[in-house]
Amino acid sequence: MGEDNIIKPVQSAQSIAATFSPIREVLFVAVVCMGQFMTQTNVGVCLSALDIVGDSFGIDEPGILSWFMAGYSLTVGTFILVFGRCGDLFGYRRMFIIGFIWLALWSLVAGLSVYSSYVLFIFARVLQGIGAAMLLPNALALLGATYQPGKRKNMIFAVFGATAPNSALLGAVFSALFSQLAWWPWTYWTQAIVSLACAALGVLVVPSIHHDAPFDRSFVGLLKALDVLGGACGIAGLIFINIAWNQAPIVGWREPYVYVLLIIGIMFIAAFIYVEFNVAEHPLIPFHAFSRDVSFVLGCVACGWGSFGIWIYYFWRFEELFRQTSPLLTSAQFFPVAPVGIIACVVTGWLMGRMRPGWIMVLSMSAFTLGNVLMAIAPVHQTYWALTFVALLVIPWGMDMSFPAATLMLSNAVERKHQGVAASLVTTIVNYSLSLSLGLAGTVEVHVNNGGHTPSDVLKGYRGALYLAIGLAGLGMSLSAIYAFKGHLDERQARKTKARSFGSV
Q: Do residues 166 and 34 touch, judged by C-beta distance below 8 A?
């Protein structure tokens, strides 16, 4: 690949990690990884006990149940960019600790909603996502600003990525335990307790990182630094589009307000792009830091994680509804994701110093595609140890090769003062793709399941949704393969040009 398209690491002035004692470094990495842990736990806790929570509210409508998960991912993906910028301006440590406290508050409310209605529960889940939106970008930014580019940073990012599948699994297990053996609200009350404990530990071990780029601290200066106009347009656009896509499977696309919301959302996104390029003095997204590599990786991440959002939701629905497994047993079946995820992250950390991102993405998208194919064709009465078990061995490679590679690339691509925004971009794409893909899958499901009046019709809808996931992952695999091959040709051409220049000297 040509030299213009190669991402060059931005060196930090000094490695902050070098000033840590071994114990403090371990505690620092642990509490930062807990930001990832608590964020992904909120996906697992919803999936395993979905029917139990729904029954407690008298809800069995699939479209409403999907909002229990989609509402959380919606706000995570929508607000990450804003809180990444807040971290850049006000300090990653401050936003990181506030994120834990916010998550604790709304986890408490989510449990208390058992005394109210499912509307309050969805509202609490949506606001839990704001806490996660504070945690994720600032956790990644803390790692990016604390460690200099190198093998150690590669492995730390790999460990951070390995936290995701394990936390989702543990969330599912504990949710199943509380829901089946005790009372489901304790799932969320326990989250509140753990979040407060993490906030306290963060105060003790997370360093305060300051940048040398002061901004006008007047009210107008603050609005410009935060890019409030751009942020408002982007948030509004993402929310309207996501609500339209996730509401359509419930009320149908014939409802006029669905189209109205979608059109309004697209208009806000167009306004966001215009503001970022032509109006904002401090754009929310530093497009100047983007190379072709970065844009390519984000596109692949969107396709792969969108397919994963569909896969994980319909995996749990398929196991519990058609194979009649309990939430606890399904959580036990999901266990292979944890060790395989750890192995995948370690291998990815090793490969990132030896292989170009394009080829890592090819492997990642191939894993997403194969995992969805295996789940889509799995017969209802087939043993778990056949296709289902193999799918669980394959799918973590998609997650844990794409996420660490993408976050590390962007962390190394931008200056230390932009670490929050860089981390935000990847996590925005991941979480928004998860939420939006569920709306797309729900639309496909209701259009092919003939009303869902019989088990076979419901299964047909599930298969249709998984076929959509295969298409998304296949698109990501095709794009990554084309780009990787093109990168190989560019690099080959660059070597030939360099050899000719030496020969002419």
A: no
150-161 mean pLDDT: 76
Band of pLDDT at residue 6, cut at 50, 70 and 90: very low
Contact indicator for 284, 237 with CB cutoff of 8 Å: no
Q: Which helix (H) or strand (E) holds 471?
A: helix 455-504
Q: CATH homologous superfamily for 20-207+217-227+281-497?
A: MFS general substrate transporter like domains (1.20.1250.20)
- The single-letter code of the amino acid at 45 is V
pTM attached to this predicted model: 0.76
pLDDT tens per residue across span 194-242: 999 999 999 998 887 765 556 666 777 777 777 888 888 888 888 888 7
- The one-letter amino acid at 290: F
Average pLDDT in the 41-48 region? 83
Provide the strand spans (E) within 160-304: none
Q: Check if the beta carbon of residue 138 is closer than 8 Å to that of residue 38.
A: no
Q: How confident is the model at residue 422 (pLDDT cuts 50, 70, 90)?
A: low
- What is the CA angle 285-289-292, rounded to 5? 105
Closest CA to 234 of 90, 421, 82: 82
Crossing angle of helices 387-413 and 419-448, in 10° steps, is 150
Residues contacting residue 143 through CB under 8 Å, at least 6 positions apart: 29, 32, 153, 156, 157, 160, 411
Q: Which parts of 318-377 fold into alpha helices (H)?
A: 327-333, 337-351, 357-376
